[in-house]
Amino acid sequence: MYIITLSYFGKRYHGWQIQNNANTVQAELHKALFRIFKKNTPHPAGCSRTDTAVHALHYVATVSKIRDIPPENLKRGLNSLLPTDIRVKNIEVQDGFVDARRLVFGKHYRYLVFADRVISPFMHDLMWHSAYPLDVSAMQQATHHFVGKHDFATFQASGTDITYTVRSIYHTSVTQVGQYILLDWVGDGFLKHQVRTMSGLLVAVGRGKISPDDVPAIIEAKNRDAAAETLPGKGLYLHTLFRKDGEAEMYTPPKSFQEMVW
Q1: 84 shares a domain with 149
Q2: How distant, in Å, are the alpha carbons of 30, 54, 139, 187, 252 from that of 232?
């Protein structure tokens, strides 16, 4: 099989997974693979679903090796066929077939917030804008309550069919870099909308609507109505995937974000 590592800018896409009457990253990758492999090309298996407009700096997909094409040649071919907002960064070859989800042992998501009265039009699709000042110190206090193994049902999107909602978060942080605020979440996995809803709760803390001390009760409520607003997808990045067991627990997110544009 081929293990395809890619990045994508999510503005034009309704996430990774193929949907009827919606443009998705999986559909675009499948179309490019089909043009190379021709008939009997399966849909690539992705390591994670992502929401509408969410970006991915590091994403992994797997597909059966229909034709024996050297990885570098396949990489060049795919990048020549894919839209420019999806780029293949690396391709590996492995015997057999493994669903991409089984290759990932943890994830780092980063949510970007721009906190100032006016945001540049060039940044509008890259981060969420808070025109109100945010108390970063209070947000940092609140993050500690998320660390550990918890039932995160409070932060799961309504209407999903996932019944086991316990996840482990290894690291959370809030870092201010000038007018930019970085919300980092590292864990073994996340529920649908979980990171965006937890980030929304931190913003509510930053605006003084919720006390940091209220967070444990909100988690324990296991009720979506207890959570704050879900922030939009455009500020969220799947930043790093961990391919080795135990790697996520030892990881510390970078304190800057300029290297995200490679």
Answers
A1: no
A2: 27, 9, 19, 21, 25
Instruction: Based on the residue annotation, tell me whether 135 is a catalytic residue of this protein.
Output: no
Domain range spanning residue 234?
105-243
Query: What's at 122, amino acid-wise?
Result: F
Tally of residues, the chain:
262
The predicted model scores a pTM of: 0.95
Active-site residue among 51, 184, 188, 245? Answer: 51
Residue 29: helix, strand or coil by DSSP? helix
CATH assignment of the domain containing 80: 3.30.70.580
CA–CA gap between residue 172 and residue 183 (Å, rounded): 7
Q: What do you get for the CA distance between the two ends of the chain, in Å? A: 27
pLDDT in tens, 208-233: 999 999 999 999 999 988 988 999 99
